[in-house]
Amino acid sequence: MIMRSKFVALALGMAFILSGCQNNTHKYEYKIVRIPGKNICEVITGIDAFPSDFDDQTAMLNKMATQGWELDNVYTEIETAYPNFGDKHYHTGIKTNTKTRALNFIFKRDYNPQKTVKTVKK
Fold first, then answer.
1. What percent of the chain clears pLDDT 90, i.e. is strictly above it?
2. DSSP states of 99-114 as a string?
3. Rounded distance between C-alpha atoms, residue 53 and residue 35, angstroms
């Protein structure tokens, strides 16, 4: 009886494992939308050491959604905000030495080769 229950458990375990090994041929296409930060203080002062500002991206997100794109991930580009140029006196005090340069939105949608626009060579 114990041997039979072990065999049944092993068979069920193998069936579970093998069911997850089926061939998944689902394909996606991806698109990255880069939104650079705005630094209004740089225009006024000429110094690019202030935090970047980002506009509300709701309209862009809704537009991408109507085109069938789904937001998959977001990552930032970081840059040095207060470089010291080798002079230890140039950067004083405790400051965050980086700022966000740009936001990158990664979108995906189902890949459909019939709808993919192909480049025509002339």
1. 31
2. EEEEEEEEEEEE--TT
3. 11
